[in-house]
Amino acid sequence: MENEYTITIFSENKTGVLSRVIGIITRRKINMDSISASKSAIKGIHKIIIVIKVTETQVRKICAQIDKQIDVFKAFYYDNSDLVYQEIALYKVPTEAFYQGDTVENLVRKYDAKILRIEKKYIVIEKTGHQEETEALLEELEQVGIYEFIRSGRVAIVKPMERLNTYLKKRNIA
Amino acid sequence: MEIKAKKAQAPKKVKSDRAKTNSKKAKAKISGAEAVLKCLLKEGVDLIYGYPGGAIMPIYDALYDYQKKIQHVLTRHEQGAIHAAEGYARATRKTGVCFATSGPGATNLFTGLGDALMDSTPLVCVTGQVYSHLLGSDAFQEVDVIGCTTSITKWNYQITDPNEIPEVMAKAFYIANSGRPGPVLIDITKDAQVGLLDFKYKRTTKIRSYFPLPEVDSAQITAAAKLINAAKKPLILSGHGIQIAEAHEVFRKFVEKTGIPVASTIHGLSSLNNDHPLYVGMLGMHGNYGPNIKTNQCDLLIAIGMRFDDRVTGNLQKYATQAKKIHIEIDPSEINKNVEVEAPVLADAKDAIVALHKKVKKKTYPSWLKEFRACDKKEYRKVISKDLAKLTSGPIKMAQAIKEASDQTKGKAIVVTDVGQHQMLAARYYDYSDKNLWISSGGAGTMGFGLPAAIGAKMGRPQKEVLCVCGDGGFQMTLQELGVCSQYDVAVKILLLDNNYLGMVRQWQELFFERRYSFVELENPDFVTIAKGFGVEGHTVADAKNLKASIKQMLDHDGPYLLHVTCIKEENVFPIISTGKAVDEIALE
Ligand SMILES: Cc1ncc(C[n+]2csc(CCOP(=O)(O)OP(=O)(O)O)c2C)c(N)n1
Ligand SMILES: [Mg+2]
């Protein structure tokens, strides 16, 4: 059965790593729902987070192939219950929309969104949350009119105490 | 281990001729190009296959002064260079090295890289690249070699700074030939070849994100031993890993102690001699009847250094579902990839076998073994007796030619094959009687592999007879390497089995496409004249009664030789497990 999995990959910060990782996923004709990369809490070690919808067998094999790459320390996969995760979305709406009653204001309050910038022509709203939440706000804003929408890749922290540290200790690294 | 470019130091104010005679500390800087060659020497490389061109000219210029220390073989095509390096690596267990220029030189290596990755062959390939300031500008002969080779290399890296060369080259050799071996490609921009550095070399023994050699886990060994000691009908599947781990001796002892029958994958051929009483034949699509049938009747499979390729397993859903399975494998991603196993052993094949040997009971399985021999009889009656039926005139049977060559070389030649029917028959009818005799393109099935790989094998082990078994189709993909045979006097014996067809494809068209022969018939050249044009001796044998004498003539010849064998046009390789069929649905006719 397909499920949403988040793969976290700890690697060296080298040019080729990301394309190796992505290649492992795309060669199986799997579309990535989201991808993000940044440094991790361990100095000098990079973290890549990828979200895909696959079966558990598939995600296990994909992680094994990612692990195998020379510059990768370790890849782990999690289902959503193992994670605290967020995405950030930005919405550009016409300033006019704020003049027409208090619809937009109510939406901002209801969704706990933030107003980032006010210009003559447009206002930029920010909302952090899970995809369903940012998606719901989008749908409502579409009713009043929207110029632009963008959502970031998922950032995630795992609930179990980081397996990587244990792993690195076992390997006598860091 | 982030590679940091050292700051370029101002050149020491020492006259260059004095620098050489001065103390070691005052060594002058050398070029990146020369550094590459020094790295090779430090890694014990004495043979390179390659082809020059604009972007790698500084390295070739440096090579001019190193000719006495490193032999360079100029192949006729970069594909020839990389397959030769593969043949050399497979025959010697060392790392094969090849050079190519940027753009088309590099793209000509791709087939070999994919081949080497599939067949776990250690290679270090060095390609020249355009100047770093031109990267991404579509400069003359610029190809994104790193981007293109990411999925067909174990590791690749682009060097743009000469100071990176020693460390990256050391890493390249370590990665290529540790753990599960594979090809590494190092792309070096022209400015990095021309630039200067202080050369200091340290071999790599560790990379912090890479764990090539898992330690044997005693719990896994105990679990595996328990299954082995309890088994009533166990079967060992021996794979390429036994050859790679050079585990032949310990493997034979293990087999003899446990008394378990051994079936080999195609790359496992010669991991145990064919005449060993416990050897029961080859697995897979065109393998032997017994081991395929018995795979689905045994109670325990002990897979060693093999990866349950689809050509071995046939229909996975019906593959050995009745049996428990042990999988000894060095690459963690192979465990539970195709076949789920009860007892994985993540380790080098040799280490695992040694550990397991101590925990297994001495046993024999006479009645189980008899079941295999009964299968052998059936296969002999239905297939082998026909394949080997002595013809006394007219066109020759491929199997017969191989059997004859096997007899005359006493089963001790290194057999290097191309891809097709002749390959399967070389696997089936050569009597492998020594270790590590089989070199062929298995995972990728690369036509054109045979001749250049045979050249590499012969140069790696010149004392060995090297028999190159080719088909008329595949031979024409790389036959220009005959030029290498004659220029460097590489005494490979080419057994060209000419059925005037792309035989394996024709067989499939006959069996599965209603005999619609779509573009499989060749109008062939006069192969012997071509060989002679290259300076390679040869002759044609078209009549079965002359086969024996012709093979003798080929083997007796001092130097490379082409024996062009006119074979029966339409013959099929049996047994066969057709696509989608289970191993025990193997057809004998
Ligand atoms: C580079 C490449 N192209 C195509 C194929 C598909 N193929 C597999 S076997 C074969 C026929 C080989 O013919 P030949 O070399 O004459 O050998 P035969 O089967 O007749 O012994 C072909 C075309 C391949 N394996 N490799
Ligand atoms: Mg042919």
Quick structural summary:
The complex is a heterodimer of chains A (174) and B (589). Chain A has helices at residues 17-26, 56-67, 96-99, 103-110, 131-144, 163-170, and strands spanning 3-11, 32-39, 46-54, 72-79, 83-94, 114-118, 122-129, 148-151, 155-158. Chain A is of the alpha+beta class.
Describe it for me?
The complex is a heterodimer of chains A (174) and B (589). Chain A has two domains: 3-80 and 160-170, ACT domain (Alpha-Beta Plaits, 2-Layer Sandwich), CATH 3.30.70; 84-151, ACT-like. Chain A, domain 2 (Alpha-Beta Plaits), CATH 3.30.70. Helices cover 32% and strands 39% of the residues of chain A. Chain A has helices at residues 17-26, 56-67, 96-99, 103-110, 131-144, 163-170; strands spanning 3-11, 32-39, 46-54, 72-79, 83-94, 114-118, 122-129, 148-151, 155-158. In chain A, a hairpin with a 3-residue loop joins strand 6 and strand 7. Chain B is 37% helix and 16% strand. Chain B contains 24 helices and 20 strands. In chain B, helix 17 (398-408) packs across helix 24. The longest helix of chain B has 22 residues, at 366-387. The model of chain B is unreliable at 1-23 (pLDDT under 50). Chain A binds chain B through residues 11-13, 15-16, 19-20, 23, 27, 44, 60-61, 64-65, 67-68, 70-73, 171, 173, and chain B through 1-2, 146-147, 150-151, 154-158, 175, 207-211, 331-333, 336-337. Residues 418-422, 445-448, 471-474, 497, 499, 501-505 of chain B line the site of thiamine diphosphate (TPP). Thiamine diphosphate is lined by residues 418-422, 445-448, 471-474, 497, 499, 501-505 of chain B.
